[in-house]
Amino acid sequence: MAELAISSADEWPVARRSLSKWLLRRDVPELLTCDVVMAAEEALGLAGPVSIVVEASETDVVLRIVGHGPIPPGALPMLRASVDRFELVREGDRTTVIASFPLPRSESA
């Protein structure tokens, strides 16, 4: 599991490289790695500090983003369009986005 706490957009370049390297080390395909990183970057538009947690399994990559503040309807269009599952959970002043990116199936399967 990779966990990043980003309090400002200035921290994103270093966090982006860390996230990319972490995913690639787990054999996540490069194009899917780009999708996950772009989705995390889109989440930086959330109000307040953002916490990003990523988990990779044999079947998918799950991105969990916690921000402080509401997410307007229709927000995060790239993220919504590139995932199999998208959930938005509001708890008080926190908003959590959970997104699941399927890993490509093996051609031998």
Strand proportion: 25-35%
Structural class: alpha+beta
Give, in order, the helices and strands: EHHEEHEE
For the biggest β-sheet, the strand order reads 1-2-3-5-4
> What separation lies between the terminal Cα atoms?
26 Å
Number of helices, where a helix is a run of at least 4 consecutive DSSP H or I residues: 3
What overall geometry do the principal axes of the alpha carbons give? globular
Mean pLDDT: 84
| Number of DSSP-assigned strands | 5
Which consecutive residue ranges, at least 5 long each, have pLDDT under 50? Answer: none
For the CA atoms, what is the radius of gyration?
14 Å
Oligomer: single chain
Biggest beta sheet attributes: 5 strands, antiparallel
Tell me the helix content: 25-40%
Task: Write structural notes for this entry.
By secondary structure, the chain is of the alpha+beta class. 30% of the residues lie in helices and 34% in strands. It contains three helices and five strands; from the N terminus they run βααββαββ. α1 runs antiparallel to α2 (30-43). The longest helix is centred in the first third of the chain and has 14 residues, at 12-25. The model has no long low-confidence stretch (mean pLDDT 84).
